[in-house]
């Protein structure tokens, strides 16, 4: 004979309590996943690494480079000096210098000096902060970064816009930084951003007058239709001399073009 489950006073079997608990647990997990994605993954989704496979190298480019910061920890420059990406020598290195109006990357001076000493074309970038004024950030960058002849132009790394700030005001702030630094070095700074952010927040002609460095991952071709100089195509690069991952970049042009871009 079938064994009937004992029912609770509300008419449901005792096992319903377990099912109900399981549903609640599943909803809690689903909510957690959604919150984690919305607040941590989605805003910087372009930086989340692929889970499987090696990075793909875009075809047709011969000038390769990387960008580094303290995240790469202690670099063995003697090994990195002879590193190759897709059978091409490593040509340029962009180094994080400053952030906001008070933070200097702990490895900046060491990385910046070694990049030149070991024969790489070098550059320095500033990470934009929405918590400091454009002028204070520009002056802080100029106080700490001393570019010389043959270096790449200064770089503004911008990846976030305050949700409560009008787009026009945000763009004016960026232009204030760009103009201040341009006046100091007598060259147009490079703008680094990711593909979606460029389309949504910097899609006005004035920003197209600056050399662009676009982050666009896990695609075979750059989808940005405007002119660009650098393409950060993966954040899962591996090279001798560097522990862990490093960003890989290509330059959209010849070695002669790259030389012309540099400070005179």
What percent of residues are in strands?
15-25%
Structural shape:
globular
**What are the segments in which pLDDT stays under 50 over at least 5 consecutive residues?**
1-9, 35-52
Largest sheet, strands/sense/barrel: 8 strands, mixed, barrel
Descriptive overview:
The chain is of the alpha/beta class. Helix 4 (134-144) packs parallel to helix 5 (167-185). The protein contains 7 helices and 10 strands. Mean pLDDT is 87; it is low at 1-9 and 35-52. Strands 1-3-5-6-7-8-9-10 form an 8-stranded mixed β-barrel. It is globular and about 70 Å long. The N and C termini lie far apart (94 Å). The chain is 32% helix and 20% strand.
